[in-house]
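step=predict obj=Phosphoribosyltransferase n=171
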Amino acid sequence: MSNKRTLILNKEQIHQKSIRIAYQILEDNFEEKSLVLVGVADRGYVFAKRLQKFLQHIASEKKIELIKITISKTKRSLEATTDVPIETAKNKVIILVDDVLNSGRTLAYGLGLFLNVPLKKMRTAVLIDRSHHQFPLFSDYYGLKLSTILKEHVEVELEEVDQREDAAWLS
């Protein structure tokens, strides 16, 4: 297997796509007074925090809450925790946020946390959608939709997590 990495998004492009996603979220939820961004640890949560910042800047009258979920991605069943009570999302619009949508397993597990919580609406936001879904999930908001072969891997580096400049790589 090759160690060749191809840059697919640089820091500026990630920034631009993040702003565009924030505007799309706002347009889709224009009449809502509050939104809950649910970020999948680690990179999805960092991405959700960035979206929260952009949304607060462009729609300061809206309350933008943030929930961090930590999912055990190596398990075959749902094992997840949240940093605030899950009931925080009750009767609200939530946007489940991750960095990359590949098979859909992580987002499906994230969705599973909210099955017993009455919601107004649930949407998904990802920086990169790889289109290799094994679960019937799709991205409502995405920065880049990318057709890749299964052997290829998409890696997102975010400064807050990786201590390197923001970038998305295909390897």
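step=describe
Strands lie at 6-9, 34-40, 63-71, 80-82, 93-101, 121-129, 141-145, 154-157, 167-170.
step=end
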